[in-house]
């Protein structure tokens, strides 16, 4: 039985991952800012007060983990504030950078000593953070923060290779959640299933790569 941590577990893709992992018998620590009824209904361990932009939130999560070993850390919490060049608001861009780019680093660093050889870190970035895959433009704040999140994943993979900890950037697909105002091609349960499958099967040999939840690699 593996121990998974999922951030941003209150709703959307994170909540679905928590549901599916709990249902198959894994141990899950669901980290969220505020617990929701849907999350409480899953019946797993919940740590609230985990704002990924705050050191206190990250420390709260680390304290809850205690001396347990984390098998898979999923940095899922994310923020999208749509913009284009004329509507771009720099404070909003910074807010997205705090959550999407620095959040995964802050959380990973806070629990790093609870990861060991064989542990995995998944960062749910986005295909729109890919430099090589950008053909449509727009969403400056979100895209730039997710590109930085991709760099964090790659950088972490290099630094943590010697410790045998594998790191991946993952794109969930275009998913009908609050983030997309329920537009998309798939529901959160499908995205969650794909992400869990990827994290189950990817290993050290693929550390430092970027994957679509459907199972094919993406360009950085
Ligand atoms: N949906 C898509 O099509 C899509 C596509 C590509 C990538 N993604 C990525 O997938 C991940 C999950 O997205 P989603 O679609 O499930 O979005 P969502 O329904 O909007 O959920 C976002 C989650 O992130 C949490 N969160 C936001 N800011 C946070 C903060 N400062 N600290 C802690 N948690 C915070 C939210 O918590 P609260 O309830 O407290 O706000 C919520 O649990 C995100 O990283 C997103 O960028 C989604």
Task: Please characterize this protein's 3D structure.
The structure is a single chain. This protein is an alpha/beta fold and 220 residues long. It has one domain: NAD(P)-binding Rossmann-like Domain (Rossmann fold). Strands 3-2-1-4-5-6-7 form a 7-stranded parallel β-sheet, with helices on both faces. β6, α6 and β7 form a beta-alpha-beta unit. The chain starts with a strand and ends in an 8-residue tail after the last strand. The relative contact order is 0.15. Bound molecules: NADP nicotinamide-adenine-dinucleotide phosphate (NAP). The site of NADP nicotinamide-adenine-dinucleotide phosphate has 29 residues, from α1.
Structural class: alpha/beta
Order of helices and strands: EHEHEHEHEHEHE
What is the domain tally? 1
Shape: globular
Order of strands in the sheet with most strands: 3-2-1-4-5-6-7
Share of residues in helices: 25-40%
Discrete helix count = 6
How many strands, what sense, and barrel or not for the largest sheet? 7 strands, parallel
CATH superfamily: NAD(P)-binding Rossmann-like Domain
CATH topology: Rossmann fold
Please write the CATH class name.
Answer: Alpha Beta
The CATH architecture can be given as 3-Layer(aba) Sandwich
Ligands bound, unique: NADP nicotinamide-adenine-dinucleotide phosphate
**Rg value:** 16 Å
- Distance between the first and last residues' Cα: 32 Å
Chain-averaged pLDDT: 98
Question: Any low-confidence stretches, pLDDT <50, length ≥5?
Answer: none
By DSSP, the count of extended strands is: 7
